[in-house]
Amino acid sequence: MRQIKIGILGLGVVGSGTVRILQENAEAISRRVGAELVVKKIAVRNLAKDRDVAVDPALLTDNPFEVIDDPEIEILAELVGGVDPCHGFLLRAIQSGKNIVTANKELMAKSGHDLLDAAQLAQKDFFLEGSVAGGIPIIAAMKESLAGNNIKEVMGIVNGTTNYILTRMTEEGADFAPTLADAQRLGYAEADPTSDVDGHDAAYKLAILSSLAFNSTVNEEKVPRQGIRHIQARDIAVARDLGYKIKLIASAQCHPDGSMQARVHPALLPNKHPLASVNDVFNAVLVRGDAVGDVMFYGRGAGSLPTGSAVVGDLIACARNIVSNATGRVGCTCYLSRPMLPSEQAQSKFYVRLHALDKPKVLASIANVYGDFDVSIESVVQRALPGDEAEIVWVTHKSREHHLLGALDVISRLPAVSKVHNWIRVEE
């Protein structure tokens, strides 16, 4: 049986899972491909480090160019992460005749277009399933199974750390800070959680998904993002009373005029919404096509074996193309240049929670400000507080964000208003 030799950069969480799957399922994989996949070399930072998977030490090197420049290696799996030096590694690997598999979301969100173009020019494959939503096969589905659709919307929960935190806050009534600390203790959140809780990670993934969905390159810098640090236990409790759950949503739409918008933000989801039931570290992506309608993909969005599963799936697809002499058939599918709708033009319903004096005409004075900024009110709920204040919760009709923020700036300075505690988007 023919051998196809693989080189791997990185033997961390994802790399270890990838190697374990290749080892444990080697016979089945060979039968499915029609060739034996052989790991020839693995580049690591520290040769002395204990590994989570048994690997022949002779396969390891701390020189990545021993892998990148090896002429026998036909597929390079980049499982390191980050933009530099990985961007240069992959360009050099493509130029040396290698097919590429990566799980690097940041690299693909920031510099994916030129890498895909380079691979297409070289007639080489470039796979990236592991870069979004772990073991969920969303990229292959969008590039292949859903290719006959015009995708109208992509919406998902694509960060397991924030979903775990919000699930715990919902179930236990806890605030953000202690829940984050507990997630860090359990290993569900990094020591520096910035990328997760401030929405960077989700923005990387959304940039990739929306580029695929709408056939137009979306750079992550163009994706407005808002994290979950400001979400309070009281907001979650009020949302529950109103029939909603709060989730960190990555959302992108393509409008009839050809423009698109994308953003990452916390949102109140109705309990009946398919994404509202996605809890803990699980991810889900909802895709809306003109032919298929709504389809949702659900599963584990991170971890050694789930993401390793995506990487191995790409290795198998690439190996099949090598066997069939059919690499480089489909490169970058971003053949359009769609305008990005400015965030200030985007419309949404909004939830607003504030404290104000519980006196006549206060509610009316606040409502008048909303009206001055063209913000229409759908509902208002008032709850008496100890003393002379009340908690007032507003849900608006669809409004422009800059109109709402202008109104809240004025409202926060009204003598009767002690504090505007929060505002959050509401999805339908």
Automatic annotation (TrEMBL):
L-homoserine binds at E190. It catalyses: L-homoserine + NADP(+) = L-aspartate 4-semialdehyde + NADPH + H(+). Its cofactor is a metal cation. Signal peptide: none annotated. Pathway: Amino-acid biosynthesis; L-threonine biosynthesis; L-threonine from L-aspartate: step 3/5; Amino-acid biosynthesis; L-methionine biosynthesis via de novo pathway; L-homoserine from L-aspartate: step 3/3. It comes from the Bacteria. The active site is at K205 (proton donor). One of its GO terms (biological process) is threonine biosynthetic process. Its EC number is 1.1.1.3. GO terms for molecular function: homoserine dehydrogenase activity; NADP binding. Keywords: Amino-acid biosynthesis, Methionine biosynthesis, NADP, Oxidoreductase, Sodium, Threonine biosynthesis. Residues 351-425 form the ACT domain. NADP(+) binds at L9, G10, L11, G12, V13, V14, G15, S16. NADPH binds at K105. It holds the Pfam family Homoserine_dh. Belongs to the homoserine dehydrogenase family. This is Homoserine dehydrogenase. It comes from Armatimonas rosea.
